[in-house]
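S1.2 Input.
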Amino acid sequence: DDWLKEETDLDVAETKYSEKLVGDLKEMDIKWTGTRKVTDYFKFEVKVEFEIRKLKQVEITQNGKKIKTNEGSVKVTTKGTLIRDYQGKFEKDALRKFTRSIYDKWVIPSRIEQFEGKLIIKCDEFLNQAKAYLDIEGKK
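S1.3 Output.
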């Protein structure tokens, strides 16, 4: 979704969408994956998973008007991964793999920590935008 890319600066793809009826209740499972190239070596990956259970249509009164909306339980989880060498440049032979291990362990550990901190912020932003989307959709 374009709004999500604008808000989080991640390229977002829906990797799963399924829904099924259980009696008169609906269950939905939705997964989104957002990625962003940070450098030629690092890439952020943020995964958001929605588990929606016992979803049903209800009628409520809001501002003196009856409106139809949905009621159910929603569990939202996020997971962030800092992907190193996402292009596989250091995986081509044993010497490059060894060089990568030295690079990761001794040359850039503070940079890794810095990017992991930024990734935590991205996960929080992504989760907040997902919750805002659910709130907006729930009020339609």
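S1.4 Remarks. Helices lie at 2-8, 94-107, 109-138.
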